[in-house]
Structure formats: structure tokens, C-alpha cells
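Exam review. A common question shows you a sequence with its C-alpha cells and asks you to describe the fold in words. Practice with the pair below. Do the first one on your own.
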Amino acid sequence: MTEARKGVLAIACAATVWGLSGIFYHALSVVPPVELLCHRTLWSVVFFGAVLVVQRRGAEVRGLLGRRRVLGVLAASAVLIAVNWLGFIWAVQNGQALEASLGYYIFPLFAVALGYLVLGERFTRLQSLAIGLAVLAVVVLTVGLGVAPWLALMLAATFASYGLIKQGVALGPVISVFVEMLILTPLALVWLWGIHEFGWTDIGGRVGGVFGHDPVASVMLALSGPLTGGPLILFSFAARRIPYATVGLVQYLNPTLQFAAAVLVLGERFTVWHAIAFPLIWVGLALYSWEGWRRAGTG
């Protein structure tokens, strides 16, 4: 098998795990969202820490901990990814997985718009049309359902902002995410201590403290670390072997599987307004992808 094929297989596996992760987190609905986020943070630290020990990269991490500017940037990105993860977890636990998939569909177009606003980048005509179709889809859902898809917009905005911030950090994904999770670890420990020792309640007043009391849920919570880290390592493997345009295209498998899981597995309702809005998004992404391929071929 060629290196390019290994790369395509790796990114396809990563996107598949990401796309089906909603089913996993829905199965953990017994665990309140913030508590689940805290466990995902802690077990990600354990997973990435083990990977870095095996790779003998401890010196890199220690050197990074002395760079205040980089730590400040990673602290900001840590907050963004935590909000993004919390929104996704809440969505799949509360019958909003379909809207979450919409958020990850429109994320690339949101990123282009953010590049225009923050970095001064300019749209091509096809990119402008793609963004216009995404805006039209949001308007259709807002009018049809009587409420704007705020959750989808939040997921797209936080993930696009996360990517923008990470562009300014010359670090590999394993180290950068490990440090992000390390920054969040004290908050996660305090929250878990509070819910176990003092009965703190989660979003909506839910009582938690599941870990150690429910054997199946406890094992699944521990697996949230590899579930988070494994695909990221596959993504890094793929990005070094195939064109980034290919990486981006295959990643659309992620929201596609989220969409399918929401409708076919989690039984969420797909309305006529979704039937209008989602094709608009898909056409927009097709135009965006075509433009990416065209520019990569002429660059």
C-alpha cells in the first residue's frame, strides 16, 4: 500500500470515528454534559500523555510550558474547543444531533468568512456563492422552524475560531491538544470534586457523580480519551501524506455520518425545512471543494 493510500485510509478512519461519536456520547446520556466534558478532558490528558511518553517528547512539553505567549494562545484555544465539545455533547443528549451536523457542515464556510474578516483574505466568486448558499440555508431554517439554528452557528463559529487561533501556533496536534487539555484539567478536577463531594448539579439541575458507581458508564468515560486522541493522531498521519485539499474533502464524511446517525440511529425528525436547507449546504460545500481543488491544481 502506498503512503498516499495509507493517508486516505487514515483520514477516512478519523472522520468515521468523529462522525459516529455522537452515538457514543448519546449512549452516555446518564452522565450530565459538563461532567462528561470534564472526564473527556482528563482522559484525553492521560491518553496524550502516554503517547508523548512513548514518543519520548517530554522535553518538548517542558520547553513549551515556559513559553508564556504560546501558553496564552493555547489557553484561548482550550476554552474554544471546550465550548465546542460541550455544545456537541449537549446536542446529542438533547435531540439536537441533526443541528450539530449542520454546524460542522457549515464550519468550512464559516472559516472562509472568518479569514475575510480577521486576516483580510478575499473571496473568490465560487466561495462567495458557497457562503451565500449557507446563509440562505440558515435563513430557511430560521423562517421554517421559527428559530435560528443557534447551536449550529455556535459550533461552526467556535471550531472556525479554534482553527484560526491554532494557525498561529507552530506545534503538532498531539502536543498542542495535550497542553490545551492540561490547562483545562484543574477546572475539570474541581468540578468533578464538587459533584462527587458536595452534590453540585449540572446544566438543568442534573445530579451527576456517575464515575465509580455505574461500571459501564465508567469504562465508557475512560474510553473518551482514546476516542478523542486516536482520530487526531490519524489526522496528523494523513496530513503528512496527502494533499490538504484531499484531507478537507474526506473530512466531510464526519458531518455526513453525524447527519445519518441523527436521523437513522437517534431517530431525530427531518422536516421539509431541513430537506431544503441541507441540499443548499451540500451544493455550497461542493462549490467550495471544487474551488479548493482548482486552486490547489494551479497553485
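Now try the second one, then compare your answer with the model answer below.
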Amino acid sequence: MAADPEEDAALSWAGDEPVKAEPVRRVEVVDATPKASTPAALLVTYGILAGAYLLYTIGWVISIQRLNAVRVASSEPLNAIMFSLDEALAIASPAIWFGSMFLLSRGRKPMIRLLLLLVGLVAVLPWPFVLGAWV
């Protein structure tokens, strides 16, 4: 069936030129997957270590709550401020260690990162909670 010239005239403005068909361009699909992916076992290990560091943070919170229940308030404001700062840093130390080890060991072998995270498990252990002090 041939196109009716009157229909074409009704669908265009005066002075319009007919639309020319453009050739179809080929688009290359680039593989966006990373070349070196992290093994699943390593990701699970990082998750377990992150959970341990979260438990350490909870241990520090509990230890500091126990300590605040038995400590005597200092009359000097600088001592009180420094003690509060120490408490805040103790609570944040597991998260600071975990984050800084991921940042500082970027680009290194995964075993070095795991070793540094394991060292941190000993370094930021909430000893007052483990030893049961201030009960």
C-alpha cells in the first residue's frame, strides 16, 4: 500500500524536509567486570573479623559503663575531659583499627591485611571486660 501524499502533508509543517534514515551504528560492549576479584573465602573472613571487631566495641561500651558506675568524679575539669576522651577513644578503637588497616594495606597482598587485622584483635581487646574488672 502506497503512502498517501495528503496524509504526509497533514503530518508535517510547511518547509519541513523529509526525514532521512540514518545507518545503524554498532556499539561495542565492554566487559565491566573487574579483572582481579576478591575470593569468596576472603570476603567471608573479612566479615567474620568485622563481626569480632563489633563485639570488641560492645565489650568496651560495657566495660566503660561498669567503670563509670564505680569511679569517683574528679574535681578538676581537665581530668574529667581527658577521662571522657579516653573512654571515647577506647570505644572507637576497634573501628579505627579495622578501617585504618583496610586503608593502609590497600594494594598489598591479602595475607598481609589479614595478619594486620589479627594483630589488631590482640591490640584492641577489651581487657577490662575479659578480666571482669570493675564488677
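Model answer, second protein: The longest helix spans residues 40-70. The CA atoms of residues 18 and 30 lie 36 Å apart. Full marks require stating both points clearly.
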